[in-house]
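Hey L., structure's done. Input below.
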Amino acid sequence: MLKDHSHSPEAIAERLSAGPRAHYLREWVYGGIDGVVTTFAIIAAVIGADLSPLIVIILGLANLVGDGFSMAAGAFSSTKADVDNYIRLRKMEASHIKKHPEGEREETRQIFASKGFEGEELEQMIDMISKDHDIWIEFMLAEEYGLSKPIYTPFKAGLNTFLAFILCGSAPLIPYLLNLPSTPWWALGFSALTFFLIGSIKSLWSVHLWWREGFETLIIGLTAAGLAYGIGYVLQGWIPS
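Output:
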């Protein structure tokens, strides 16, 4: 959803001084969807195989803890890899500027020249950038590697992924924990509602309408659940009674 903001000098100064905010939308969407999909996929497979509700609860809880931790570990490790890579390349650029300043100035010159600067204006741009080594390094990282300073922390990425997985992934299990009648249908309804809510909330950071995002996520989730149910149903004859 596109949002406007104030362009008064005071509002601009406040936004710039605050800096970019880290939001963990990706972790909540990814962790939430995967939590519902994998948990309901297990339930659907068990239902398809005609096993007892107790097996549903045991496997569902095991999935929430085990797969949730696995997802969190993956988010932690991938974010840490991004941060470590940024630190490594920043040290390398700092070393290049210290050991080969003229070579780095030539790189800067070619970067600005490719953007249309030339003559005296080009040399002024190089002089301004190279005066502050921190600004120069950040400029080279952005232009040469497409990197900006990380605003996400590995721990928060892992924690948000785990919380999203547990919270959303528990939806299909609630009917079984409450011992509701027609539990498979309640589990399907809770899962479908969670899928739709995840997609709808995601629309706050999207250019698409909330209902479109909601139905898109719903279709993706139910497709995965349907595949799991089909596998369980096909293999039910292979499981000894």
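The longest helix spans residues 53-99. The chain has one domain: 23-238.

-- N.
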